[in-house]
Automatic annotation (TrEMBL):
GO cellular component terms given for this protein: Golgi membrane
Cited InterPro entries: GAUT, Glyco_trans_8, Nucleotide-diphossugar_trans
Pfam family, one: Glyco_transf_8
Enzyme class: transferase
Keyword line: Cell wall biogenesis/degradation, Glycosyltransferase, Golgi apparatus, Membrane, Transferase, Transmembrane, Transmembrane helix
This protein's record includes keyword Transmembrane helix: yes
GO MF annotation list: polygalacturonate 4-alpha-galacturonosyltransferase activity
Pathway membership: Glycan metabolism; pectin biosynthesis
Membrane topology of the entry: Single-pass type II membrane protein
Family the UniProt entry places it in: Belongs to the glycosyltransferase 8 family.
Transmembrane region(s): 20-37
Record-given protein name: Hexosyltransferase
GO biological process, one term: cell wall organization
Length: 537
C-alpha cells in the first residue's frame, strides 16, 4: 500500500505539543509578572519605613530635654515645679493631721508623674493644650493648700515652735538619761556585794588564813620584796575586789617574770577583810600582793589633806551629798561624792604611802593588762615625774576643756592648748616627786579651788595642774582608753599594753559595752566556788 505524501498526513499530535508549549510560556510569564509586582511593593514599603524612621530621628534629634527644662516657657518645667511644691505640702498636711488632703495631693502627684513619663517616652515636647487639664487640677490643690495656711511664713513659724518644743524634750530626756546612766554606773551589783560579804565572813571565820599571813618567815620574805627597788612595783587604790583581781591577774598572766612583780593595794576599812581574804585564797603566778587600808595612815588627816578639810564644811557637804544650792546647773556626774573619796585622791600621796620605793606604776582598777609591763620601768623620764600617754589627738583633751580659763590664776599659769593626758596607767619617778615637792603643788591648787571656781570636780583637773611641765609623754600603745564609753580602733586594741575601761560602761556592770566585755572577762575564773555562790556568770 502506498504511503500518503507529507502534505496529506494527520496533524493531531503536532497540535497537542503546541498547546502544551504555549501554556507553559503563559505560566512562566504570569509568575514573572507576579515577582516583579511583589518586588516593587516591598521596595515601596521599605522606602516608606525609611522615610518614617528618618522623620522620627529628626524629631528625636530636635528634642533636647535639658533645653526644655531650662526654657522659661516649658510646660514640663511647670509641671515639675508643681510636683515639688505638692510634695512639700504633703509632708505639711501629714504633720497637720490632714491625711485626706495629703492623699489627694499624692494622687495628683502620681497623675502628673505618669503624664510626664508618657511625654518622655514619645520624645516630644509637651504643649499647653494637652497639659492644660493636668496643670489646672494641680493648681487647684496648691491653691487649696495656701487657703489651709500651708504657705511658707505660716509654716516657718509653726515649724520653729515645733523645733523649740523638740529641743526642750531632747534636753529633758538627755538630762534624765545622764542621771539614770550615772546611777547605773554607781550601782554596786548584788553579785559584788555578795562577794564582799562572803569573803569578809570567811576571813573572820577561817583563822588559818590570818595565821598564814602572820607566819614570820612568810612575813619577812614579803617585807623584803615590798622594799626591793629591783622589782616591778605596781599600786592600785580600790574598793572593788573583782576589778582589782582582774588588773592583777591580767598583769601576772602576761608578765615574763611574775615572781618579780609586786602589787601594793590600798582599800578602805569596809573592804579590807574581804580584800585580804581574796588575795590570800588565790595565787597569781607568784605575784606578791600587799593589802593596806588608808585609815591606818596617821598622816592622812584634815590638817594635812585639803580634801578632808573641805569635807568638814557644811556647804561642801550639801553640794555633794544633798544636791542643794545649785538649781541643777552642775551636771550630776560632777556632784558624785566618789570624787571626794580618799581612794581617788590617794594617787597624789604615793611617796608618803610607799616611802621606800623609787619608781612605781599606778593602775586604775578598771584596766586590763595584755602585755608584759616590765619595759616600762626602764623608760627614761628625762627628769620628769609623771610618764603618761597624751590624749590631745582631739581638741576635747586639751587644758581649756578641763579648766576655767576665765579665772585669772588659770590664765596666768597654764597654756589653754597644752596637751592633756590620762590617769589609769602612769609611771611615777618618786625620787623626782619628792625633790620637786609635787604633793605640795597639789595642795596649793586644791586649796585655791575650795570654792570650785578653777575646776568642777575629779582628780584629772588637779592632776593636770600638779604635773604641768613635769609629764613625759609615753608611746600611745602603753595605755589605750575609751572602752567604757566609745568605739576603739581594733588595731589599737591589738597593740595596746593596758586597756582602760574609763567611762560609765564598766565591764562588770549590766550597762557595760558587750563587745568589749570578753577582753575583761577572760581574766575572771567564773568556776571559782565563791563566784558561783554569788551568781557571777
Amino acid at each position: 500500500m502506498r504511503r500518503r505524501s507529507a502534505d496529506f498526513r494527520r496533524p493531531g499530535r503536532r497540535r497537542l505539543q503546541d498547546v502544551v508549549g504555549w501554556t507553559s510560556c503563559s505560566v512562566v510569564l504570569v509568575f514573572f509578572i507576579y515577582i516583579l509586582t511583589k518586588g516593587t511593593t516591598k521596595i515601596d514599603s521599605t522606602h516608606q519605613f525609611s522615610r518614617r524612621t528618618f522623620r522620627q530621628d529628626r524629631i528625636i534629634e530636635g528634642f533636647n530635654v535639658t533645653e526644655e527644662m531650662l526654657s522659661p516657657d516649658s510646660v514640663t518645667r511647670q509641671i515639675n515645679d508643681q510636683i515639688s511644691l505638692a510634695k512639700a505640702f504633703v509632708v505639711i498636711a501629714k504633720e497637720s493631721n490632714n491625711h485626706q488632703f495629703a492623699w489627694e495631693l499624692s494622687a495628683q502627684i502620681r497623675i502628673s508623674q505618669i503624664f510626664l513619663s508618657n511625654a518622655a517616652t514619645r520624645r516630644a515636647p509637651l504643649t499647653i493644650k494637652e497639659s492644660e487639664h493636668t496643670i489646672r487640677d494641680m493648681a487647684l490643690l496648691l491653691y487649696q493648700a495656701q487657703q489651709l495656711h500651708y504657705d511658707s511664713p505660716t509654716m516657718i513659724m509653726r515649724l520653729k515652735g515645733k523645733v523649740q518644743a523638740l529641743e526642750e524634750q531632747m534636753s529633758s530626756a538627755s538630762e534624765r538619761s545622764s542621771k539614770y546612766g550615772q546611777i547605773a554606773a554607781e550601782e554596786v551589783p548584788k553579785s559584788l556585794y555578795c562577794l564582799g560579804v562572803r569573803l569578809t565572813s570567811k576571813w573572820f571565820k577561817n583563822l588559818s588564813l590570818q595565821k598564814n599571813l602572820m607566819d614570820k618567815t612568810h612575813k619577812r620574805q614579803v617585807e623584803m620584796k615590798l622594799k626591793d627597788n629591783d622589782l616591778y612595783h605596781f599600786c592600785v587604790f580600790s574598793d572593788n575586789i573583782l576589778a582589782t583581781s582582774v588588773a592583777i591577774n591580767s598583769t601576772a598572766i602576761n608578765s615574763k617574770n611574775p615572781e618579780k612583780v609586786v602589787f601594793h593595794l590600798v582599800t578602805d576599812e569596809i573592804n579590807y577583810a574581804a580584800m585580804k581574804a581574796w588575795f590570800s585564797l588565790n595565787d597569781f603566778r607568784g605575784v606578791t600582793v600587799e593589802v593596806q587600808k588608808f585609815e591606818d595612815f596617821s598622816w592622812l588627816n584634815a590638817s594635812y589633806v585639803p580634801v578632808l578639810k573641805q569635807l568638814q564644811d557644811s556647804e561642801i557637804q550639801n553640794y555633794y551629798f544633798k544636791g542643794n544650792n545649785d538649781d541643777s546647773r552642775t551636771p550630776i556626774k560632777f556632784r558624785n561624792p566618789k570624787y571626794l573619796s580618799m581612794l581617788n585622791h590617794l594617787r597624789f600621796y604615793i611617796p608618803e604611802v610607799f616611802p621606800e620605793l623609787k619608781k612605781v606604776v599606778f593602775l586604775d582598777d578598771d584596766v586590763v593588762v595584755q602585755k608584759d609591763l616590765s619595759e616600762l620601768f626602764s623608760i627614761d623620764l628625762n627628769g620628769n615625774v609623771n610618764g603618761a600617754v597624751e590624749t590631745c589627738m582631739e581638741t576635747f583633751h586639751r587644758y581649756h576643756k578641763y579648766l576655767n580659763y576665765s579665772h585669772p590664776l588659770i590664765r596666768a599659769h597654764f597654756d589653754p592648748d597644752a596637751c592633756g593626758w590620762a590617769f589609769g596607767m602612769n609611771l611615777f619617778d618618786l625620787v623626782q616627786w619628792r625633790n620637786r615637792n609635787v604633793t605640795g603643788i597639789y595642795h596649793y591648787w586644791q586649796e585655791k579651788n575650795a570654792d570650785r571656781t578653777l575646776w568642777k570636780l575629779g582628780t584629772l583637773p588637779p592632776g593636770l595642774l600638779t604635773f604641768y611641765g613635769l609629764t613625759e609623754p609615753l608611746d600611745p600603745s602603753w595605755h589605750v582608753l575609751g572602752f567604757g564609753y566609745t568605739n576603739v580602733d581594733p588595731q589599737l586594741i591589738e597593740r595596746g599594753a593596758v586597756l582602760h575601761f574609763n567611762g560609765n560602761s564598766k565591764p562588770w556592770l549590766k550597762i557595760g559595752t558587750e563587745k568589749y566585755k570578753p577582753l575583761w572577762e577572760k581574766y575572771v575564773d567564773y568556776s571559782h566556788p565563791i563566784l558561783q555562790q554569788c551568781n557571777f556568770h
